[in-house]
Specification:
With 184 residues, this protein is mainly β. Helices cover 5% and strands 41% of the residues. It is globular.
């Protein structure tokens, strides 16, 4: 069972699992397909990805896989703190180019669900962080895309002027130069 919170983009939701603490620590179901279905989310994980950030200010994104290889994702932070970003890239959507940023921490155990058609980014807010996310379609290098983290058309407020970026993310195109093919 999840507590489901809406965001400013109705299809992007925050999922908080039910946590069972005791004197040993705690237990929770990080992924439950039936509970997601009860929450109105049809999602079957086929791959889990793992991110480790060794310092604050690391930005990974904005990433997506073009159709027909698009991925829905459920993202959580198991160590430290990150801000997770979802950007609506579906042309014709009432929320096209809008973005939401959600603080995911080891303590709050919140997860962010991003449907297909969204770019994804994450910024580390703690000295060390670990992030896991499950996807409903496997990695397809021929569909792998990104757009520039600070694209002025999208204008994500990362709260940082000089993030730590990979060479791929430093050289990402602007959305207007991308072949992004999502339609609403």
């Amino acid at each position: 069972m999840y507590i489901v919170e809406k965001t400013d983009i109705p299809e992007v939701v925050i999922l908080t699992p039910r946590v069972f603490p005791d004197d040993r620590g705690f237990f929770f179901e990080a992924y439950n397909e039936a509970a997601l279905a009860e929450a109105g989310i049809k999602f079957r994980a086929v791959q889990e990805n793992y991110i480790m950030n060794a310092k604050p200010g690391v930005i990974r994104g904005l990433h997506f896989q073009n159709g027909p290889c698009a991925q829905a994702k459920i993202v959580r932070c198991s160590v430290g703190e990150v801000d997770d970003v979802a950007v609506d890239l579906r042309k014709g959507s009432p929320t096209y180019l809008k973005w939401v940023m959600v603080r995911l921490t080891a303590e709050n155990k919140k997860q962010l669900y991003l449907p297909k058609g969204f770019a994804h980014g994450v910024i580390s807010r703690s000295d060390y962080s670990e992030v896991q996310y499950v996807v409903d379609a496997g990695y397809a290098p021929q569909c792998d895309r990104n757009v520039l983290w600070n694209d002025p058309e999208i204008n994500v407020d990362w709260g940082i002027a000089a993030p730590v970026l990979s060479p791929k993310d430093e050289k990402a195109p602007l959305l207007c130069d991308s072949d992004c093919n999502f339609q609403y």
